[in-house]
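Let's study a protein:

___
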Amino acid sequence: MERRTIGAGALAVGAVGLGCMPMSWAYSGSRQRGDASLRTVHRALDAGSSLLDTADMYGPFTNELLVGRALKERRQDAFVSTKVGLLVGEQHIVANGRPGYVKRACDASLRRLQTDVIDLYQLHREDPEVPVEETWGAMGELVQAGKVRALGLCAVGARGGRRSGGRLHDATIKQLQRVQQVFPVSAVEAELSVWSPEALESLLPWCEARGVGFLAAMPLGNGFLTGTLTPGQGFEPDDVRARHPRFTAEMMAANQPIVAGLRRIAARHGDEVTPAQIALAWVLAQGRHVIPVPGTKQERWATENAASAALRLPPEDLAEVAGLPGARGSWD
């Protein structure tokens, strides 16, 4: 698989990563199987998807334990990214950016991941009660201590007010400018997909201009862009899509032209090419610093996603994607 680099330290990873969250958190709990997910991680590594993206809150903790089982056998094949800063309670999630907590959480993640070093340590969310510079400073000390190789900022939470367009990431950019003064930012993780392209307007250019890697979260639109979901099919109560404004039966039906467009482009590339691969190829085409991180818990999808790294979209295909109708949500 093509290799891409993250940050000024030129940390090399496969062009398509693996989002491990669905294996333990947020998607259809009844379908989560540890051994099957472990096989998926190994399949992804075999295909060159070396970046494994997890977080201590996924589970909580169980996702890191799962990834750790794979790392114990294949640490040299993997680039592990995990996150800190969120605590999961019974019915709520709270931020904790206190320096002492960050350092303890890192040690705990290292134990669960069965590794001596975390390749990319991301701040999951800023703690409103702690200056972000203090949190980031503690994370920088972890790099200096040899426990972490590089730091990143997760901006996936910037989903509200989607209709504000490019202004969506203004707060993230201000945050990045602040922490950059304390310790270098190597990567930013934020949503980017055919149906959520907002990062293209300001956040992606900010990263490109500074040599910061961009991890594209939810590049398949929470599964919608694969074309495998049926409007009105329903989701389990613990599935995040059960509460997502784009996954009501009405909105899934209204957004079918987006999937139809991806299918049309895929057909021109051969019978084996899927809408999901076109969606990932579009994300890859947004810059050499962009690494899509599609999440899955199934081997077949990990294999399919990895194969998209070899797909090149000509200008006419990129223009056709750009001309697809914008995604609609229940607020429209």
Observations:
- The longest strand covers residues 148-154.
- Residues 99-113 form the longest helix (15 residues).
- The radius of gyration is 19 Å.
